[in-house]
Amino acid sequence: MNAPLPVKVTRETAAHAYETVAQISNEIAGRLAARLASETEGEVLFSTADRGRYATDASIYQVMPAGVFVPSGAPDVKTALDICRDMGVPIVPRGGGTSQCGQTVGAGLVIDHAKHMRNIIDVDAAHRTAEVEPGIVLDHLNAALRKHGLWYPVDVSTAAQATLGGMAGNNSCGSRSIAYGNMVHNVLGAQAWTSDGNLLQLGAFAGSSGKARELGNYVRTLAEELQPEIHRLWPTVMRRVGGYNLDIFDPRSERPYTADGSVNLAHLLIGSEGTLALTKSLTLQLAELPKAKVLGVVNFPTFYRAMDAAQHIVKIGDGTLTAVELVDRTMIELSLQNPAFATTIRSALIGQPAAILLVEFSGASKAELLPHLKRLGELMGDLLLPDSVVEMTDDAPQKNLWEVRKAGLNIMMSLKGDGKPVSFIEDCAVPLEHLAEYTDALTEVFKKYGSRGTWYAHASVGTLHVRPILDMRREGAPKMRAIAEEASELVRKFKGAYSGEHGDGLCRGEWIKWQFGPQINEAFAKIKQFMDPAGLLSPGRMINPPGMDDTRLMRFPPSYKVIPIKTALDWRAWDVQNDPATEQTSAPGSGGDPAQGFAKAVEMCNNNGHCRKFDAGTMCPSYRVTRDEKHLTRGRANTLRLALSGQLEGMNARDAFTSDAVHEAMDLCVGCKGCKRDCPTGVDMAKMKVEFLHHYKAKHGYTLKDKLVARLPDYARWASRFAPLLNLRDKIPGLAALSEKLLGLSAKRSLPQWTTKTFFNQPPVTATRDEVLAAARPVVLFVDTFNGTFESGNALAALKVLQAAGYTVHIATKTIADGKHLCCGRTYLASGMVDEARAKAKELVKALLPFAERGIAIVGLEPSCLLTMRDEMLVMGLGEAAQTISQHALLFEEFLAREAADGKLDQLKARLQPADQAILLHGHCHQKAFGAVSPIMDVLRLIPGAQPELIESSCCGMAGSFGYEASHYEVSMQMAELSLLPAVRRQPDAIVVADGTSCRHQIRDGAQREAVHVAVLMARQLQA
Ligand SMILES: Cc1cc2nc3c(=O)[nH]c(=O)nc-3n(C[C@H](O)[C@H](O)[C@H](O)COP(=O)(O)OP(=O)(O)OC[C@H]3O[C@@H](n4cnc5c(N)ncnc54)[C@H](O)[C@@H]3O)c2cc1C
Ligand code: SF4
Ligand code: SF4
After folding, report:
1. 414 lines ligand 2 (CB under 6 A)
2. Rounded to whole angstroms, how far apart are CA atoms 681 and 675?
3. How does 46-72 read in b/e, with b if 16+ C-beta sit within 10 Å?
4. Rounded CA gap, 303 and 326, in Å?
5. Which ligand is the nearest neighbour of the Cα of 681?
6. Candidate of 338, 672, 683 to mutate for ligand 2, largest count of ligand atoms within 8 Å of Cβ
7. High-pLDDT (> 70) share of the chain, %
8. Would the pTM of this model clear 0.85, i.e. be above it?
9. What are phi and psi of 428, to 5 degrees?
10. Per-residue pLDDT, 19
11. Ligand 3 atom closest to the CA of 623, numbered from 1
């Protein structure tokens, strides 16, 4: 086997592309890569890691593509299509890759439309239409439409990731489809290339001509011939998305495809899953943004009663009812356990309901909608469930609850162990009058196979999502087939649709024939043949699909194996198995993971793509900047999974884990912990990066820069004596450039300034250990390396505020004085030096335990340092003592906010002078990850008249030493420019509060403004 080569073929390397790719894959892939690189402007990604990152979507399947192409625009797609036709290479079009059934996995060339093909071509507000490129994400389109008072109302749960091209491909359906319909009901036209290179203009059949007209005539003839068969077998529910839309001339959907009953040829592409043509653009029917919404959350004592009630609820509202969505008990429980969702879900509950239905009414004003909410309460009374409705009329709580509902599947997927909720019958649609009976019967089927399902989603249209828990590495595949067969019988009995939302893909392809019968299936094959005679577009999907249980196509086939690793951190919490019927997990460490739980933690990524987001939250700053799959939490998790399971071909598994391919994927991870909080399954890439670096550096060695950064806590006190000398780096021309050359620290960056007088070498006199242990209002202040060395003023300010508030403050010191300060080990962790970090943490634990045991708060200033005590220190083998400390470790603002809430800060409040400037707050990523931003707001509000404003920002981009490094400087600045720096510039007179040392540095470098720690601002406001 040849040595692995990182294959990123560029125009410059095009001449050698063939050799490079052919060496690691095959001859055709080599020629394909070479031609793409020389004939297009797009990105040509043919390395094993790149292909592996595009081998999966949110389904259980995995198929390695021959290569990946990221077109720079429409002309590139056309050229790629021509090249593939020439060479006979199949094409798999892709948007966000969030399909649940394997639609985007396949051999051939994957074309990723999401990175560049995302322009809005035109908006016609008067006629409420928009023309868009296929790669635009729904949320981004809707953000642009807001100013017109319009939106595109097919509001899929994946709105922040799903592209319009992908939504059209799958005939996607939103939570409000009862009011607006599916994609097919909301597309007016499409431009699309067929595999022969023709660009079809698809729109109203009446006005069509040329090839489009021919297509229409052909389909009409087929449909007319099969009319009796279509009338006999075609599901008449609105939520039928399986097969091609052969019924456009005689719609069988409950809801007509067009408002005026006309025929639209673009509808043939909707739900065709990339098998008929490549979409170049779509013309969309927009809707007016609802001016007001109210929500009634109905709490049910049994699941059956919730299901039975749906058919009655949909009848109320006089046309204002826009959604009836189910959340069942299991999902309620999982939401309660998730810190991001717990408070929200609690606000919707009355007691401990078995299920809740979210019933939404939309209209011109809240006043107009309130009677419908009242009517909902009355209806529930009639159904013998009085007082079961939680009314939500304000927008914010409604929005929060919808976020929980939208995250439903992801929340479910957070179950640890090899058994996972699997999607294959997750969206069968049945008429509402049979919903209760159907769900009851299917639950019995699950029981029969030793599993159970969690139910949620679209009760309004009879499409309930449910995924039985199956272990695909063991007996999952045969069980999946057995359950599918029984489920299909139920669907037939209740005259429903087997594929009601997510499409066919690999898991439902074989059921198309079952649903529509052999004759209609044959007609589908003829449509495919007519449009794609060469069989170039996603072959083996829709027509002649493989078996759903073909384990050769699965991500976790029975042959899946993980390499043994001795981990540096403790990952045993992930190394468990679960009971599919009870969802109970076994003891930590008992899951049988040869990588001691690390592989199972990595495998928690189910590829749903939630990390491809740009809205609120932190995840994932590197992707927000590059839009590369490689720099996405999902891409990283996939790369690690492929490496750990020996699937990075050309390398043995042990080398693969510490390979450059993995390093490349991890390189731009800033360790912001955004994913720890925002990823619904809790993929904690920051921690994984520490583990990875530990192994990578052990093999490849530490650079001088690594050592300088990591060991800063050890030499800081000594080095500060030479402050004037060290500061010359930023003063004498040429020295910064030299430091870039020697150390890799960007010459464009200033470095933190050393001072000879620091908090550490001239500490103020404070309470001793014994004094604080005996004090009535004790607190221990942990001063970290940064605030104790470079910004001593922050530590002094914190001390001043705490003392002004009446606390006896002790500065944490080592139990045995050795001239060094206490350190949490953060800088070592960031470099992968886990053993050194553990040694530091041990000292810290020893010093702080007596205080924690007495319940005394340990207060810190630097978020990344203090929060290490609540995070990494718990997985470094430090036992119960570390746990005890973590329970008492608080950020300065968390402590003050807690004390204020307990009414203990009156003395401090009385001394605070009013604010006379606006206050802007930027939260450090780790503060965000630990929900510690609102306490800063609470503390700032203690200042009379203060109205702090939170900057909606992701990571500042500095992230410890990341932004100082020459190789990361550009990306670092781009991260800051996403929202932080523009927000700071917009308010030139505001005080900017940022608790992170590196955040403040980034703000200084990028916006030339001095941000302050909250402690400093509080101290400034103190009256003498
Ligand atoms: C957690 C979760 C929740 C979901 N919730 C919903 C939901 O509420 N409603 C719903 O309907 N679906 C839902 N889905 C499924 C999925 O998100 C949607 O189908 C989504 O619209 C797919 O968009 P995408 O950009 O990821 O498309 P992809 O998955 O990338 O592609 C979808 C299909 O479109 C084809 N395609 C993509 N671009 C083109 C193009 N330019 N030309 C031709 N074909 C193309 C692909 O080949 C594929 O067959 C959910 C999935 C997950 C993981
Ligand atoms: S990392 Fe998390 S959010 Fe991203 S795809 Fe994986 S599971 Fe989803
Ligand atoms: S830690 Fe931050 S940068 Fe790294 S993968 Fe998670 S969200 Fe992205």
Report:
1. no
2. 9
3. bbbbbbbbbbbbbbbbbbbbbbbbbbe
4. 10
5. 2
6. 683
7. 98
8. yes
9. -60, 140
10. 67
11. 8
